[in-house]
């Protein structure tokens, strides 16, 4: 996969060869306000192959230890700078320092099923049906 970076940005890397995602780092110092969010432009541009997408996923340490989450989808046709929106679910402002890992991008295959077919009623294909939140118990 081809990658270019803006001045001051960091090349995405995997901490370990077997890791599923490439770490994205912040090129700036900033705050994520308590119970708020901020957007960080990583300065990273990726040429993701057709048939794939980049899924932005929270770093587990930031999520479990600090309450900082992120998510997003980067389509294969997009070559602009990847921006990460960080959400602070905690009660204290969180300081992001330049070079901190803020999210990770996982390259996933996209299945193209040739679009959407509108029908009056969906076929029953599972025992779950329309049972949602909490329907399978604890």
Features of the shown structure:
about 140 residues; mainly beta; Deoxyuridine 5'-Triphosphate Nucleotidohydrolase, Chain A; four-stranded antiparallel β-sheet; three-stranded antiparallel β-sheet; 1 helix; 11 strands; about 5% helix; globular
What's the tally of helices?
1
For the CA atoms, what is the radius of gyration?
A: 18 Å
Strand order across the biggest sheet? 2-11-6-8
Unreliable stretches (pLDDT < 50, length at least 5) are none
Mean pLDDT: 93
Q: What structural category characterises the helix and strand content? A: mainly beta
- Please give the alpha-carbon distance between the first and last residues: 42 Å
- The top-level CATH class of the domain at 2-9 and 22-109 is Mainly Beta
- CATH-level-2 architecture of the domain at 2-9 and 22-109: Distorted Sandwich
Fourth-level CATH superfamily of the domain at 2-9 and 22-109? Deoxyuridine triphosphatase (dUTPase)
Secondary structure tally: strands = 11
- What fold name stands as the CATH topology of the domain at 2-9 and 22-109? Deoxyuridine 5'-Triphosphate Nucleotidohydrolase, Chain A
* Helix content range: under 10%
Following the backbone from N to C, one meets helices and strands in this order, namely: EEEEEEHEEEEE
Beta-strand percentage?
Answer: 35-45%
Q: What form results from the Cα inertia axes?
A: globular
Instruction: Tell me the major beta sheet.
Output: 4 strands, antiparallel
Report on the structure:
The termini are far apart. The protein contains one helix and eleven strands; from the N terminus they run E-E-E-E-E-E-H-E-E-E-E-E. Helix content is 5%, strand content 37%. The strands form four sheets. It has a four-stranded antiparallel sheet with strand order 2-11-6-8, with no helix packed on it. The chain has a three-stranded antiparallel sheet with strand order 4-9-7. It is globular. It has a domain of 96 residues: Distorted Sandwich (Deoxyuridine 5'-Triphosphate Nucleotidohydrolase, Chain A). It is mainly beta.
